């Protein structure tokens, strides 16, 4: 029976709840704003289905990708609306052309990210773009299983830990499933996001939220809050406290500091990411419109990718890995994380973020040391792993 004694050991995938025959697992928010399972022991029959499906208890082996690309959509509008190169859109387009269904993440009416299905290309726009907040699967895994059994092609896009959970939940390989994950830094919870959002706009006043607005270029990591009265608030990385909290490891879910799905342990077919450092890896136009780093991890991934209309340049994996540590290394916990969450309900969120995001001399030293350690990690990863069949 699932029992969360250490919060690092739960990614919040809700797969345990989805398999429980007694429906005795519920999910509650903790004081940091992340969801965890709780078992009603009075109804539990000790069948251990929940333990068997858990992607933290049962990890897949690590591997190397089969091929790696610098890529983007040939459609300029789509590239602008997407976080990186718009490859998600092109894969979705290809899946729809065969009558398939896509499961991905859009905002709900309260500007929280939610999983939903999409059946038509004309409905896909709300699903474009990264929402840097944890979305929970709900009944997504069960719905996917039903469609797969009925022979429908399904593309699921999720964090690596959720793709691993879906694989465990399905128990067998389906030729009609395309499992896509992304290079994952980690996720903040809805509590931090909603507190931050409320400093600038009421839910009902917002017309659009973009975590990766490209008005000032792809590399700026700009957050856009667009109001119904046409006012636009754009926070570029320098003054984007929300994004800084995420990148500096202050606001993430505990499991993200010990991610169970790095090094391609998710068993995804394709991985999408931003191609940081692309200018050092391959000759490509430096137009700051967004380039995706794509890794193809399985033969099935290869065949889906070949059918999509994507501008692609093949690149050397070790070179790409040098600039994209999150493929294999978890985010580092910020030493002030505990203090930040202790104060989450006591202090103004902006003050709390600002106070705990100061970067000092010791942080710089630590950063340099971590870069050296990463060189060793990278070498070991390349040495010990093989490609999947
Ligand atoms: C929480 C998070 C952390 C990330 N961390 C990194 C990183 O460290 N390094 C890196 O290179 N790339 C990271 N990415 C991936 C990157 O931001 C882009 O999503 C990816 O490059 C795909 O871009 P695109 O232009 O092809 O598609 P986009 O149009 O940007 O598509 C984004 C896809 O991600 C899905 N999605 C959006 N938000 C969520 C969410 N909260 N949970 C699950 N799925 C979601 C959408 O439904 C869509 O399918 C992260 C993404 C997320 C959501
Ligand atoms: S052991 Fe079985 S009955 Fe008990 S919580 Fe887990 S899945 Fe449910
Ligand atoms: S990781 Fe998923 S399956 Fe495991 S305990 Fe947490 S919610 Fe349940
Ligand atoms: S960092 Fe790992 S545990 Fe955290 S959301 Fe991403 S895949 Fe899941």
Write the layout of secondary structure elements.
Elements: H1 15-19, E1 25-29, E2 35-39, H2 49-53, E3 67-73, H3 76-81, H4 87-97, E4 101-107, E5 113-118, H5 140-149, E6 154-158, H6 160-170, E7 177-182, H7 190-198, E8 206-213, E9 222-227, E10 232-235, H8 241-247, E11 270-274, E12 292-296, H9 299-307, E13 310-314, H10 317-322, H11 337-342, H12 349-356, H13 361-384
Parallel strand pairs: 4-6, 6-7, 7-11
Antiparallel strand pairs: 1-2, 3-12, 3-13, 4-5, 8-9, 9-10, 11-12
This protein binds flavin-adenine dinucleotide and iron/sulfur cluster (3 copies).
One iron/sulfur cluster is lined by residues 2, 10-16, 37, 53-56, 165.
Structure explained in plain terms:
This protein is an alpha+beta fold and 389 residues long. The protein folds into 2 domains: 7-53, Alpha-Beta Plaits (2-Layer Sandwich); 59-389, no CATH class. It contains 13 helices and 13 strands. It has helices spanning 15-19, 49-53, 76-81, 87-97, 140-149, 160-170, 190-198, 241-247, 299-307, 317-322, 337-342, 349-356, 361-384, and strands at residues 25-29, 35-39, 67-73, 101-107, 113-118, 154-158, 177-182, 206-213, 222-227, 232-235, 270-274, 292-296, 310-314. The strands form 3 sheets. An 8-stranded mixed β-sheet has the order 5-4-6-7-11-12-3-13, with helices on both faces. Strands 8-9-10 form a 3-stranded antiparallel β-sheet, with no helix packed on it. It has a two-stranded antiparallel sheet with strand order 1-2. The longest helix is centred in the last third of the chain and has 24 residues, at 361-384. It is globular. The site of one iron/sulfur cluster (SF4) has 14 residues, from helix 1.
């Amino acid at each position: 029976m699932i029992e969360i004694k250490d919060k690092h050991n739960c990614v919040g995938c809700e797969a345990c709840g989805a398999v429980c025959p007694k429906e005795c697992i519920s999910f509650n928010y903790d004081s940091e704003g992340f969801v965890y399972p709780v078992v009603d022991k009075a109804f539990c029959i000790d069948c251990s289905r929940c333990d068997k499906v858990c992607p933290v208890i049962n990890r897949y082996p690590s591997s190397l990708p089969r091929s790696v690309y610098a890529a983007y959509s040939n459609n300029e509008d789509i590239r602008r609306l997407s976080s990186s190169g718009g490859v998600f859109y092109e894969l979705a387009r290809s899946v729809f052309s065969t009558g398939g269904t896509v499961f991905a993440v859009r905002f709900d009416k309260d500007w929280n990210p939610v999983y939903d299905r999409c059946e038509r290309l004309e409905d896909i726009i709300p699903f474009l773009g990264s929402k840097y907040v944890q979305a929970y699967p709900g009944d997504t895994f069960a719905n996917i299983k039903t469609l797969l059994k009925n022979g429908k092609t399904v593309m699921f896009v999720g964090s690596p830990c959720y793709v691993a959970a879906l694989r465990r939940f399905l128990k067998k390989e389906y030729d009609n499933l395309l499992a896509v994950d992304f290079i994952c830094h980690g996720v903040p919870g809805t509590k931090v996001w909603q507190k931050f959002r409320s400093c600038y706009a009421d839910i009902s006043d917002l017309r659009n939220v973009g975590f990766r607005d490209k008005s000032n270029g792809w590399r700026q990591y700009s957050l856009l809050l667009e109001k119904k009265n046409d006012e636009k608030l754009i926070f570029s990385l320098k003054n984007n406290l929300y994004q800084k909290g995420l990148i500096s490891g202050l606001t993430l879910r505990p499991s993200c500091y010990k991610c169970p799905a790095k090094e391609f342990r998710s068993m995804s077919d394709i991985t999408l990411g931003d191609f940081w450092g692309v200018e050092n890896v391959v000759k490509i136009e430096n137009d700051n419109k967004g380039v995706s780093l794509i890794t193809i991890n399985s033969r099935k991934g290869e065949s889906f990718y070949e059918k999509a209309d994507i501008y692609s340049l093949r690149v050397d994996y070790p070179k790409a890995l040098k600039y994209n540590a999150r493929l294999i290394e978890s985010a580092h916990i910020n030493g002030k994380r505990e203090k930040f969450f202790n104060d989450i309900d006591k202090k103004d969120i902006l003050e709390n973020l600002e106070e705990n995001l100061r970067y000092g001399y010791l942080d710089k030293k630590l950063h340099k040391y971590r870069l050296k350690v990463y060189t060793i990690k990278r070498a070991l990863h390349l040495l010990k792993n093989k490609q999947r069949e």
